[in-house]
Amino acid sequence: MNPLHADPATAVVVLLILAGYASWGWGARHFFTKPTGTNSGIDAIYLLSNLLGLYVLAGLPVLGVASSGHFAAAAILLGLSLSLFWWAIAANRRKPLSFAFSEDLPEHLVAEGPYRYIRHPFYTSYLLTWLAAGVATGSAFMALPFAVMAPMYFTAARVEERKFSSTALNRDYDRYRAGTGMFLPWPFSSRAS
Predict the structure, then answer these.
(1) Which of 7, 43, 153, 182 matches a 20 to 30 Å C-alpha distance to 188?
(2) Interatomic CA distance for residues 2 and 167, integer angstroms
(3) In 10 A of CB 7, how many CB atoms?
(4) What is this structure's pTM?
């Protein structure tokens, strides 16, 4: 397929992915609190997100969307990703969260909005976008970004959860974690009912 003459389905997927990347960029610059200095985790997130984002944007028009079913599944994932991202922003508008791998300790616990169902809606949103590229194309090459970023987000989530154990929010967080899924809703949660 000529990347200059992408089919409409591929163009829509690329535009939705760009909307996700633009949302992430806005969040990094205007929403999440910035740590003083930097660390290897923050550097890795920035570097990998940018490199893999370019990889997806270069590969998707070349490979194209595999079928109408692949398009529908990718569009649903991307719609969920964008919705989840902005819902999490709304839930935190009064007290923004710190950037991934920041060393500061949490000062509050968010348990409303998407946090009622999952503990890390931002990471879930990012993962849905990375997953959508592989789903759209049906290509293992486009599944690579998801495979690279999933362990990174899992590690960041675990670091954030460990930080709660050093605060007065420890017990509240333990109760919250017991009834809420990490990246997907926990089916047995009383919060989900």
Answers:
(1) 153
(2) 55
(3) 13
(4) 0.90
The pLDDT value recorded for residue 5 is: 45
- Residue 193 CB neighbours (<10 A): 5
Residues 6+ apart with CB under 8 A from 170: 164
CATH architecture of 3-178: Up-down Bundle (1.20)
Q: Is the pLDDT of residue 53 over 50?
A: yes
Exposure string for 81-105, b = 16+ CB within 10 A, e = fewer? bbebbeebbebbeeeebbbbbbeee
Tell me the backbone φ, ψ of residue 151, rounded to 5 degrees. Answer: -65, -30
pLDDT digits (tens, 9 = 90+) for 113-129: 999 999 999 999 999 99
Residue 164 identity (one-letter amino acid): F
List the structure tokens of 154.
Answer: 């899992």
Cβ atoms 117, 185 nearer than 8 A: yes
Query: Quick count: other Cβ atoms within 10 Å of Cβ 6?
Result: 18
Backbone angles phi, psi at 178, to 5 degrees: -65, -25
Residue with tokens 């967080």: 173
DSSP state of 181: B
16 by Cβ neighbours in 10 Å (0-12 / 13-18 / 19+) ranks as buried
